[in-house]
Amino acid sequence: MTRRPVTIAYIGGGSLNWATKLMADLAHDTALAAHVRLYDIDHAAAERNARIGTRFAEVSKGTPAVYRAVPSLQDALTGADVVVVSILPGEFDDMAHDVDIPARYGIKQAVGDTVGPGGFVRALRSIPMMLPIAEAIRDHAPKAWVCNLTNPMSVLTAAMYHAFPGIRLWGECHEVTKLRHQVAWIANQQAGAQHHSHRDVQVNVLGINHFTFVDAIGLDGRDMLPAYRAFADQHGNSGWSPRAVDPGDEHDLYFMDRSRVKFDMYRRFGIPAAAGDRHLAEFVPQAEYLDTAQDWDFALTPVSYRIRDRTEKRARASALAAGEGAPHADRSDEALVDQIKGLMGLGDFVSNVNLPNRGQMDGLPMGTIVETNALFSSLGVTPLVAGRLPDALHDIVRDHAARQTDLLAAVVENRWDDLFGLFRTDPLVAPLPTDTARLMFHEMVQATSHHLPRDLLREAS
């Protein structure tokens, strides 16, 4: 059987998370013959991942992928069919400031990477990092398909379109998968057997990244929305997870989704929420969920845990690169390889992605980055009409989407005075007195100033 060759440029190729998921998925796949170029400002990390990729290639079910660490962005991009952008905007110390400084002012954040004060300042330092990447794609791989995995997803996807309007880019997020897993579990319980996986579940997605909802659910030709409604009503007060949460496991503690927030939003708005509780809670005023996170069965993830987890992942990665342990060609929950196959003409594929609004979501300005379904085919990435959210949710989404759009414009135009005004209107910041909010904003900016462009800082002074 002839395999479809594809050259993938991975920007952030020293990744300890998404890169190895891609390696496992390519090892599981039998349709592609991939050449993966790994580029990272930490070249040693990219070289380590190239060695890990070679180990995954050894257990491939199809044509083994070839991995190579390259020294420059141009080397990665030239001739690439697909570009994956997966970078960390700054260091975990920066993310700690994003979370810890607002906490001293009484603002709680479960994640702090999308909206709220943490997401806002993360965008300030990451937009200038993403713009030159998009410009390099314009110069060296203008026809490549580009997948952005980096948060804050909406703002950074828009930033890349701003730098290169002709970019063939989508933003990829797996949060909706959580709801699809729930629906597959419901169907399997009804059948009394494990007939279905989340890949069998179809949903119509509406929203913006990390604040997504679905108004239609299908499986095997059946309307699963009534069954999901009954499921949410049954577990609304107790929560639900596919297995028992291990109280001694930090990952379970911080990342196991009990869905109490999802179920409550369904009851409030009449439409199932798709993203995880930790993200959903940050889009609404703090008093609704974050103040009583423990009562809603979710945790505020401390950056100290992320740092410990990174240390452990580095140790495992180093061991794997050195030939220890055994890589497995196990398929992950990620959709990227299926999306690539769709674009390469190996079967159409539908999944939720972040794209500029071209009419797929009613009531939001054209060009606003929205998250809906899109069709991946040899014709490209085609957004599918999603419709409109209920009015109460539409108003929340419109407010956040407008702030994200205006934030990008203020950064690229060096309009510092507009930035605080936008920061001030976020639902988590709005309850603070103006003078207090201004102090917090300047403290956060100073903490990340080494990542901000000089022109922006000059405007601030």
From TrEMBL:
Pfam family, one: Glyco_hydro_4
Record keywords, A-Z: Carbohydrate metabolism, Glycosidase, Hydrolase, Manganese, Metal-binding, NAD
Entry cofactors: NAD(+); Mn(2+)
Family annotation (Gene3D superfamilies): AglA-like glucosidase
Ranges where the Glycosyl hydrolase family 4 C-terminal domain occurs: 205-429
Metal-binding in keyword set: yes
Entry's cofactor comment: Binds 1 NAD(+) per subunit.
InterPro entries: GH4_Enzyme_sf, Glyco_hydro_4, Glyco_hydro_4_C, Lactate_DH/Glyco_Ohase_4_C, NAD(P)-bd_dom_sf
PANTHER family: 6-PHOSPHO-BETA-GLUCOSIDASE-RELATED, ALPHA-GALACTURONIDASE
Name assigned to this protein: Alpha-galactosidase
Taxonomic source organism: Loktanella gaetbuli
